[in-house]
Design brief:
With 336 residues, the protein is α/β, with parallel strands linked by helices. The protein folds into 2 domains: 6-125 and 283-302, Rossmann fold (3-Layer(aba) Sandwich); 127-279 and 311-334, Dihydrodipicolinate Reductase, domain 2. It is 35% helix and 28% strand. The protein has a 9-stranded mixed sheet. The chain has a 6-stranded parallel sheet with strand order 3-2-1-4-5-6, sandwiched between helices. A hairpin with a 2-residue loop joins strand 11 and strand 12 (251-256). The N and C termini lie far apart (41 Å).
Length: 336
């Protein structure tokens, strides 16, 4: 598809803004033309690095009719204000996950963008990884049979990298700590592969990192189809590690980022390797966003979808606090 690149402004100059900006440099479907951060030094450095304008205020960006969309990597608790302002100004929004730090704000963000008829795409890139796409296709073909169970682990070492007082590590901006920070990625993948989650039972611990938020979380997810999934997220492990095992009645898929993907069919003794090409998921989600802007189409992961995955995390937070199983509908109903 050939079209003029979507002219975007980057909002929020954290490390992830550079990750997204680097991805934009790999595609001709978007062009960074402006940026803003409250830190003049950060926005000037970003502007120099990516050859764009350093705006003096967010209002300057919103009033610039040549800017079509916002790449929003601001803190969770200001997602509502910054996205609402963009939508009212008729600018489309690519918003880093999670959509918000609570269900009420998440719902408002989705509703406002729908009302203003602007595209809202959320950065859930993990589901785009080709190994998960392969598993999804095989499930849809019926090759896994009845889905019964899944187990996954998303772990990173954050010791020595902790910024005490940073919004990412405080309960107000990141309730549930590691659960919301990175666990939500695999919540999305599990729902993508296994179906919607019905209820959550969770436990958390704080073992290594300072501050108030848990650095270990374990969630048992009951899916609407009756399958059970176990998700562990950690910031206290010795290294980075990703694991996803998907169990069906007639086939099982095993994935970890060291050994790749394997498939074991019922009756076989050893799993077989599955070859797949490692893809640039961030470029793909940004290109999809650009396509949606130009075609006025719906992104794969929109605001309403991610409110549901956020509800899974919020159910986990409540479960760990109250030591009980929490239904997803209870969380959604509480914010109606």
């Amino acid at each position: 598809m050939n079209f003029e690149p979507v002219r975007v402004a980057s909002l929020g100059m954290g490390w992830w803004s550079d990750v997204l900006a680097d991805a934009i440099q790999k595609t001709n479907k978007l062009e960074i033309v402006s940026c803003f951060s409250r830190s003049e030094e950060k926005r000037n450095n970003f502007a120099k690095k990516y050859n764009c304008n350093s705006a003096s205020s967010y209002e300057e960006i919103l009033e610039d009719n040549s800017i079509e969309a916002i790449i929003n990597t601001t803190p969770n608790h200001v997602h509502l204000n910054t996205t609402e302002s963009a939508a009212i100004s008729k600018k489309h929004v690519f918003l880093d996950k999670p959509i918000a730090h609570n269900i009420k704000d998440g719902k408002k963000i989705a509703e406002i963008c729908a009302r203003e008829d602007v595209i809202l795409s959320i950065g859930y890139q993990r589901r785009r990884e080709n190994q998960f796409r392969w598993i999804k296709k095989e499930i849809e073909k019926g090759n896994f049979g009845k889905m019964v169970q899944a187990e996954c682990n998303i772990s990173r070492d954050r010791e020595g990298q902790f910024e005490l007082g940073h919004w990412r590590y405080e309960s107000e901006g990141m309730p549930g700590g590691v659960m919301l920070q990175i666990g939500i990625h695999y919540v999305d993948v599990l729902e993508f592969l296994m179906g919607p989650v019905k209820s959550v039972s969770a436990r958390t611990a704080q073992l290594v990192l300072p501050g108030e938020n848990p650095d270990i979380a374990n969630l048992i997810l009951e899916h609407q189809n009756g399958a059970l999934s176990n998700l562990t997220a950690s910031y206290a492990s010795a290294s980075e590690y990703y694991l996803m095992n998907i169990y069906g009645k007639t086939a099982t898929a095993y994935f970890n980022h060291f050994d790749g993907l394997r498939i074991l069919l019922r009756g076989e003794k050893k799993p077989n390797s599955v070859s797949y090409k490692k893809n640039d998921t961030i470029v793909e989600e940004l290109e999809e966003f650009a396509n949606c802007v130009r075609e006025n189409s719906k992104p794969e992961v929109d605001g309403f979808r991610v409110v549901e995955s956020l509800a899974v995390i919020m159910a986990g937070v409540m479960s760990a606090k109250e030591n009980r199983t929490v239904r997803i509908q209870e969380i959604l109903d509480a914010e109606n």
